[in-house]
Write a structure and sequence with these properties.
The complex is a heterodimer of chains A (954) and B (94). Chain A folds into 6 domains: 4-113, Roll (Ubiquitin-like (UB roll)), CATH 3.10.20.440; 163-281, 3-Layer(bba) Sandwich (FAD/NAD(P)-binding domain); 467-545, Orthogonal Bundle (Arc Repressor Mutant, subunit A); 567-622 and 716-810, Probable tRNA modification gtpase trme, domain 1 (Gyrase A, domain 2); 624-712, 2-Layer Sandwich (Alpha-Beta Plaits), CATH 3.30.70; 818-940, Elongation Factor Tu (Ef-tu), domain 3. Helix content of chain A is 21%, strand content 29%. Chain A has 23 helices and 51 strands. The radius of gyration of chain A is 37 Å and the shape is elongated. The termini of chain A are far apart. Chain B has 1 helix and 6 strands. The longest helix of chain B has 9 residues, at 37-45. The N and C termini of chain B lie far apart (33 Å). The chains are: A alpha+beta (954), B mainly beta (94). The A-B interface holds A 243-245, 247, 272, 274, 421, 439, 661-662, 693, 696-698, 700-702, 704, 842-843, 847-849, 851-853 and B 1-3, 19, 21, 27-28, 31-33, 35, 37, 40, 44, 57, 59, 61, 65-67, 76-78, 85-86.
Chain lengths: 954, 94
């Protein structure tokens, strides 16, 4: 193919030349060009290499269906976008595009050897070949396949662009701005409602842009649109998905058509549009013909040749051959001839063609070969000629040409219609599926509804050829390199459903989602199976209609807006103290407070020692809190938790264990009875919303007769834990209205009074094993009270500590963390929490499940402690535990390490684990195999410090 | 984005305000201890999973926070009706 710019014609602006580059070479086009039209006008034939065989490939279509001409566009650092379809890339000054999937260059591609050995790579090759050995996947198969196959490279740097997102509501949404869509929008606008018209091209008009005869009408309609105040027109906007209740997702491309220096504002905008009625006017896509050599660069759709000539003023070649099975090919040939393009011949596989067309061709001086088919295409990087033969089998004749246009008929674009679960009906005249019955308030108009005069055509599977189909390079899916013979092979190997044939051959599974290949694949499968197409069905269309960027889908939801960060009232103080933070569910929590150049290990050892020897303070505000109020509050909690609650006296606290109905631990926390009808519940930090939801569920749907109200108070209370032997001394001067003595205020009690002048619910509880208080004050006073305690504690050596120290201290005492030491399959018995289960209660959530035999069967994992033989060896959390490290791999694993820390109090490491029959293994040695070594450890009780609890009760 | 009618708020609201709660009309047994293991398993795990209309629980979590029931067609995802907790499935002769 040696395309060139026609001297006149097209909708380009010849007064505005634009310089651009492709694979580093400079070219020139005009304003209004696409990258594809400008390259064809410059004589470029070769656009890319195919996915599997690395065959040289050229342009096929001039719209979203383009399978071959995929390019990467470079808009500067971190702004390289791969896999863009060249016909849809608007030309701008300085555009830099590169071809893909070739090495070292487009003209000379090493991997094209795949093509020479193509017989070795049939359908299912990957499934069959790269099976064994498994380890070879990681080191050999995957890296090599990734190097050779694949399309463009993903950008690796952070995307610097902004993406906008918005909602819109309208009475009528029209998708597709061709003549039918514009007419539908004007009709709707006349009814007075709000109308949206969206179209993916730079300019409204669709197919009419490539049809001179329609330009005047088009201009008139556009003027009427512009005058209609109730119509919003969005061009460069792709409706990519049609969701429930007329909800359409669309991406508007705002800056990619501009030179980077001119691009201002967001790059793309995601529209989420809810419409009263949706009108689909998406038009139709031309089908290629399947014949030997149909992928040689220069073989393209007839509609592409027409668009290049009439919209862009570009001739696809010096001598063009049209291979038709449809009238539209004749019309295109005539339009090309009229535009000044030399049409060497029309070859039509049909035996009879309408006299009108035949006459018109004769008058235009075009040679016509009826009842014939191309049997070979000559040339590798560009078409040099074709051989065609009567009936595909007769004595062939060679014809010199540099472009071949295929007219295989038209496939209505029913993508969005199918997203909306509208039915499809096979239509013999179109050789395609047409919209049937809609579920949503939706209708199709124009070509996508089958309501457009494209002429008539013959349905062909593969053009007739003397060669066996297995010896033909007759491509069905250009992008995934699927040939007709692959579909025959799939049928031969037993595939019957089109869904199986699709997956086995990958026909229609590339980024173009089979826009040009689905129907041809279906016809070939139908012929191979000897069953009508309608019986074979059609693969399902799913969003997106064409590839979309993650940026558009994310919109503003990135960086700080990716997800909310919850901060406690003491967060600012911690930040001022240069705390190191960690995220716990959505909360940001201080992990440790380094002093000087301390690393985490040093800081945590110091913080732990301070709590054990003097006093520490900890921000526990993130604990979930629920206020449970009402005459039936105690009865309700009694049914929810494993523990008995009715006998709990006001002023006392209890550790509560919450199961799911399946008997597994869901949450835990210490809760207090403030009055007969009022409880202050606490939950884990991450579990608060889940627990409240579960309790509401039971309250609303199972026990609606209970008079109880649940209120989330997590963010209403700041919670300051003061823990350590000097805890009482620190807070005593600040507290009034509460007798803090051990006799008057024992462990697991709650009192109300004031601290630093602020009302408080003062809990005497401990998650450290030391004398401790958890001071609840209104969140607004949290920081002031925290600072008052910090000041008062100075004389006692008070140290703020973070979540890491909290974890270590609780682990030394064997207190579990739900979700770390448990994993959703642990019962109270597994965790050694039998004492928390009310044996006399007739029922509670999960009780019946605990009675299942499996829940107490031998072999269950049980919670235990581990002490490594080397006291300084720190186990890895998550490490697998085995009973015998000498067994062959894969050796049986009996459990895993759930918590592991360096203990300052013990001067060694400690760990918690769940292992099969763990309690029976206490005193035994188990093994933790790690890379390069096996760690020995002794199984112990999960309690490493002050087993009697004398410090706790001080 | 489905619009779901909350029978308490009496408004159609976007699905992101709601959470799904599994099959509806499965009452927790009054005396779980009276059930044998097979019966308890049936209560706990066995669900109809129909192709077509399905009575199921939803919660207007980011709204009134109430649980309610809905009949949704599992083929089309269409909500046929929503109704308050405790009410019989519309169309059921109860």
């Amino acid at each position: 193919m040696s395309g060139y710019r026609l001297s006149t014609g097209g909708r380009i602006d010849r007064s505005r030349p634009l310089a651009f580059s492709f694979d580093g070479q400079g070219y020139q086009g005009f304003a209004g060009d696409s990258l594809a039209s400008a390259l064809v006008a410059s004589g470029v034939t070769l656009f890319g290499r195919s996915f599997k065989y690395h065959r040289p490939r050229g342009l096929v279509g001039m719209g979203p269906e383009e399978p071959n001409a995929l390019v990467s566009v470079d808009r500067g650092p971190a702004r390289i976008t791969p896999n863009l379809r060249a016909p849809q890339v608007a030309l701008h000054e300085g555009l830099m595009a590169k071809s893909q999937n070739r090495w070292p260059s487009l003209k000379f591609d090493v991997a094209a050897l795949n093509d020479v050995f193509g017989a070795l790579f049939p359908a299912g090759f990957y499934n069959k070949t790269f099976m064994w050995p498994r380890s070879a996947w990681e080191h050999l198969y995957e890296p090599v396949i990734r190097q050779l196959a694949g399309l463009g490279d993903s950008p690796v740097a952070r995307d610097p662009d902004h993406y906008d997102a918005t909602y819109a509501h309208c009475d009528v949404l029209v998708v597709g701005g061709g003549m039918a869509g514009i007419a539908a929008a004007l009709d709707a606008a006349a009814q007075g409602g709000r109308v949206f018209l969206i179209d993916e091209q730079d300019e409204l008009g669709g197919g009419a842009l490539s049809d001179l005869a329609q330009w005047a009408d088009l201009n008139a309609l556009k003027d009427r649109l512009a005058a209609a105040a109730n119509v919003t027109v969005l061009t460069r906007t792709v409706a990519f998905g049609y969701y429930h209740q007329n909800f359409i997702g669309a991406t508007q491309y705002l800056t990619d058509h501009l030179a980077p220096a001119q691009a201002d504002g967001p790059r793309e905008r995601l529209w989420r549009i809810r419409a009263g009625e949706v009108v689909l006017a998406q038009g139709a896509i031309e089908r290629p013909l399947v014949f030997h050599g149909n992928d040689v660069p220069g073989v393209m759709l007839a509609s592409a040749g027409r668009t290049l000539a009439l919209r862009y003023g570009v001739a696809v070649g010096q001598a063009v051959v049209v291979m038709a099975a449809h009238d539209s090919g004749w019309r295109d040939a005539l339009a090309l001839a009229q535009a000044g393009v030399t049409v060497a011949a029309i070859i039509d596989v049909r035996g009879v063609v309408s006299a009108d067309l035949a006459d018109a061709a004769r008058i235009a001086g075009i040679a016509v070969h009826i009842g014939s088919a191309i049997t070979a295409v000559h040339g590798r990087h560009a078409v040099k000629g074709v051989t065609f033969a009567a009936g595909g089998t007769g004595r062939g004749a060679r014809l010199a040409c540099d472009a071949v246009l295929m007219a295989g008929g038209w496939t209505p674009s029913v993508h969005l219609w199918s997203h909306a679960k509208g039915s499809l009906v096979w239509n013999d005249a179109w050789g395609a599926y047409l919209p049937g019955t809609a579920i949503e308030n939706c209708r199709a108009v124009g070509a996508c509804a089958g309501a457009w005069d494209m002429g008539t055509g013959a349905i062909t599977a593969v053009l007739p050829n003397r060669r066996d189909v297995r010896a033909q390079k007759a491509f069905v899916d250009f992008q995934n390199d699927v040939k007709a013979r692959d579909i025959h092979l799939a049928v031969q190997e037993g595939m019957r459903s089109i869904e199986h044939i699709k997956r086995y051959t990958t026909n229609g599974m590339a980024t173009d989602q089979g826009k040009t290949s689905n129907l041809n694949g279906l016809q070939i499968a139908s012929a191979a199976l000897g069953r009508p197409v309608a019986e074979i069905g059609l693969t399902t269309f799913r969003p997106p209609y064409s590839p979309q960027t993650f940026g558009a889908l994310m919109g503003h939801h990135k960086d700080a807006l990716f997800q909310p960060v919850r901060k406690s009232p003491i967060d600012d103080w911690a930040r001022e103290q240069r705390a190191v933070f960690e995220n716990v569910s959505n909360w940001r929590r201080a992990r440790y407070f380094p002093v000087g150049g301390e690393d985490m290990e040093a800081a945590v050892l110091r913080e732990c020692a301070a709590v054990r020897n003097a006093v520490g303070m900890f921000d526990a505000s993130t604990l979930g809190k629920i206020e449970v109020v009402g005459p039936d509050a105690a009865e309700f909690l009694n049914r929810m938790y494993t523990n008995p609650w009715k006998g709990l006296a006001p002023g006392r606290c209890r550790y509560g264990l919450l199961l799911r109905e399946d008997g597994f631990i869901m949450d835990d926390g210490v809760s207090a009875r403030m009055a007969d009808d009022r409880f202050h519940l606490t939950t884990t930090t991450g579990g608060a919303a889940r627990v409240l939801g579960m309790m509401e569920d039971y309250l609303q749907t199972e026990w609606a007769d209970l008079d109880v109200w649940l209120t989330s108070t997590t963010e209403q209370w700041a919670v300051i834990a003061v823990q350590g032997p000097r805890a009482r001394d620190v807070i005593a001067p600040l507290v009034s209205g509460i007798d803090l003595s051990a006799e008057a205020f024992p462990h697991m009690a709650v009192r109300e009074g004031t601290i630093a002048g602020v009302p408080t619910r003062l809990f005497r509880v401990s998650f450290t094993g030391e004398l401790g208080f958890e001071i609840n004050v209104p969140a607004s006073a949290g920081r002031a009270v925290w600072e008052a305690i910090h000041t008062a504690g100075h004389a006692f050596g008070i140290v703020p500590y973070g979540t890491e120290t909290m974890h270590v201290l609780r682990a030394e005492k064997g207190f579990i963390i739900v979700g770390q030491d448990t994993d959703g399959t642990m019962t109270p018995f597994d965790m050694g929490l039998d004492w928390a289960v009310g044996k006399k209660k007739p029922d509670f959530v999960g009780k019946r499940s605990l009675a299942r035999p499996d829940m107490s069967a031998p072999g269950r994992k049980q919670f235990i402690g581990l002490l490594t033989e080397d006291a300084q060896e720190l186990l890895e959390e998550g490490a697998q535990v085995v009973a015998d490290p000498d067994l062959p791999i894969p050796m049986p694993m009996i459990g895993h390490v759930t918590s592991s820390y360096r203990s300052a109090a013990l001067g060694r490491t400690v760990a918690l684990a769940v292992i099969a029959d763990g309690r029976a293994r206490i005193g035994q040695t188990i093994f933790v195999p790690m890379p390069g070594k096996v760690i020995r450890a002794t199984v112990t009780e999960p309690m490493f410090y002050d087993a009697q609890g004398s410090r706790l009760n001080a | 984005m489905i619009l779901i009618h909350c029978p308490y708020c009496e408004e159609d609201r976007p699905e992101v305000e709601f959470t799904y709660g599994g099959e509806a009309h499965i009452a927790r047994p009054a005396d779980p201890a009276a059930l044998n293991d097979r019966e308890w398993e049936t209560y706990l795990y066995i669900r109809r999973n129909p192709r077509g209309p399905h009575a199921e629980r939803w919660r207007h979590a980011h709204g009134c926070a109430r649980f309610f029931n809905a009949v949704r067609d599992t083929v089309t995802d269409r909500f046929e009706v929503t109704y308050k907790t405790g009410e019989a499935r519309p169309g059921d002769a109860k």
